[in-house]
Design goal:
With 137 residues, this protein is α+β, with helices and mostly antiparallel strands. The protein has 3 helices and 6 strands.
């Protein structure tokens, strides 16, 4: 069986590693690469969308990054337990009209015994910003 280290149960150090790995993967804006961190049968809630499976993740992220241009993300470990991690995040992007946004949110993650994320629940709010107010460049 394939594994995605670090494995649960998490320590502060391994939880921080998982968060950094997720940030790096999402900033690649490569849906196929990102999907490999999730279990084959992963379940997501992202805002008002419900996504199932890696194929659903690839489709969702492809659509997302076709609309959210020049996407840049920063994640921060908020809390962790044996196989769960909570993060706070923000990211910036612009739409096809050039309007910049900063999105703020929280995610709750649950991992299987092989280190793959089997559940991801995200609550996100977008704030329009001026390009001069960007923090992530």
């Amino acid at each position: 069986m394939e594994v995605k280290k670090p494995l649960p149960p998490f320590t502060h150090e391994t939880a921080m590693q998982k968060v950094q790995m997720a940030e790096d993967a999402w900033n690649s804006r490569n849906p196929e690469k990102v999907s490999l961190a999730y279990s084959v049968d992963t379940e997501w809630r992202n805002r008002d969308k419900f996504i199932k499976g890696r194929e659903g993740v690839v489709q969702f992220l492809s659509d997302k990054w076709n609309k959210e241009l020049d996407y840049k993300l920063k994640k921060e470990l908020w809390a962790f337990t044996d196989n769960k991690i909570a993060v706070r995040f923000e990211y910036e992007y612009h739409d096809t009209n050039g309007q910049w946004y900063r999105a703020y949110g929280n995610e709750n993650w649950e991992f299987d015994e092989y280190g793959f994320m089997k559940k991801r629940y995200a609550s996100i709010n977008d704030l329009p910003i001026d390009e001069k107010d960007r923090r992530m460049k």
